[in-house]
Specification:
This protein is α+β, with helices and mostly antiparallel strands. The chain has 4 helices and 7 strands. A 7-stranded antiparallel β-sheet has the order 2-1-5-6-7-4-3.
Length: 153
């Protein structure tokens, strides 16, 4: 069984945890992303890893070529997040590889979680950061979705 297949089978459990009073078990690294499908109009909720910086959230999609959900955000779209037990709304959009937000988000993850170097298939040296070649390689492996949250409250 592939890692993606295993994770897909776990999604309903993770969704239930993120919606529950014990969300703290997983919500420091996972958020529940809810959106309406661009073509189907169907409401979809899925757990995704995230980085929060003020009212900006970065979601890095590894093996993006194998996943479809992020394509809903090639154009900006409305989303809801269950973020650390709180419901938040925002606008999500795929970020171009050339955007400084792409580089900053990728470097932040690679510095914080060294194991992501294998997942992203990049030999990252935290002392020098991403090289131009590594950034180009990452652009072929991952997608960064930027979510601008409305202020809380």
């Amino acid at each position: 069984m592939s890692v993606d297949s295993f994770m897909s089978r776990l999604n309903p459990l993770v969704v239930a945890i993120l919606r529950s009073p014990v969300h703290w078990i997983a919500s420091s690294g996972l958020t529940l992303l809810t959106y309406s499908g661009r073509k189907s109009g169907r409401r979809i909720s899925l757990p995704v890893g995230y980085q929060l910086d003020g009212n900006e959230v970065a979601v890095l999609v590894s093996e993006a070529h194998n996943k479809r959900w992020w394509r809903n955000f090639r154009e900006p779209g409305d989303v809801e997040l269950t973020l650390r037990g709180e419901s938040r709304v925002g606008r999500a959009v795929v970020v171009a590889t050339e955007d400084p937000f792409f580089r900053a988000s990728a470097e932040r993850v690679l510095r914080r979680v060294p194991g992501m170097r294998r997942v992203f298939k990049v030999a990252f040296d935290r002392r020098i950061g991403l090289t131009a070649a590594q950034l180009e390689q990452l652009g072929n492996e991952i997608v960064v979705v930027r979510i601008s949250l409305e202020p809380a409250g």
